[in-house]
Design brief:
The chain is of the alpha+beta class. It has 5 helices and 12 strands. The strands form 3 sheets. Strands 1, 2, 3, 4, 11 and 12 form a 6-stranded mixed β-sheet that branches. A 3-stranded antiparallel β-sheet has the order 6-5-7, with helices on both faces. A 3-stranded antiparallel β-sheet has the order 8-9-10. Helix 4 packs across helix 5. The relative contact order is 0.16. GO terms for molecular function: ATP binding; ATP-dependent protein folding chaperone.
Length: 184
């Protein structure tokens, strides 16, 4: 199998493999590239692309499909459309009336206000992105059976410097280094 036959190079020993965390609209995915070949990793349900949703409706944070399901019953507990928000000033963000979460500006910083089982809480943007990166890191490490330290971030639009800084802080929270940013 492609993925398991190239563990040493994916772990960064020869510098030719690359782990890309892909973000496209309200979905994320993981791609492993080596020697001109790419492979999308699949989750336990066989999905390559997962919903970019985060839920605080339970005692533990949920991301992906489970969080999207939570959104139907508990919209105030779920964050999505994060790529439309992060790294932008409040006056540039188009607030969707369907959002159950709120955006709160404090000292020039935009926070997501989300309902939790303990009441409403403010979360910085990098914390939300960190939750997605953590999930993607754990999935990658579980499938490849290696620890990853370096990733590339690909989005469906060019990130501004503020957005890159948020991704970098989120990666740091997960002991990851971002080797580069590119556009899908």
């Amino acid at each position: 199998m492609f993925v398991q036959s190239h563990l040493s190079s994916i772990n960064g020993l020869n510098g030719r493999s690359q782990i890309k965390f892909l973000f496209n609209e309200n979905f994320n995915a993981i791609e492993i590239s080596e020697r001109g070949f790419s492979k999308m990793l699949k989750d336990a349900f066989g999905n390559e692309w997962n919903p970019l949703y985060l839920s605080m409706a339970q005692a533990t944070v949920e991301v992906g499909k489970k969080a999207k399901t939570d959104h139907e019953k508990f919209p105030k507990y779920v964050v999505y459309d994060v790529l439309k928000v992060i790294g932008k000033p409040l006056n540039e963000i188009k607030i969707d009336p369907k959002w159950g979460f709120k955006l709160v500006e404090k000292d020039g910083i935009i926070y997501f206000q989300i309902e939790t089982i303990s009441g409403p809480r403010l979360f910085p943007q990098e914390m939300i992105i960190a939750a997605f990166l953590k999930s993607m890191k754990l999935q990658t490490e579980s499938i490849l059976n290696v620890q990853i330290k370096e990733i590339c971030i690909s989005t469906n639009f060019k990130l501004n410097e503020s957005q890159k800084a948020i991704f970098e802080k989120a990666a740091e929270m997960n002991f990851l280094e971002i080797s580069g940013f590119d556009v899908l």
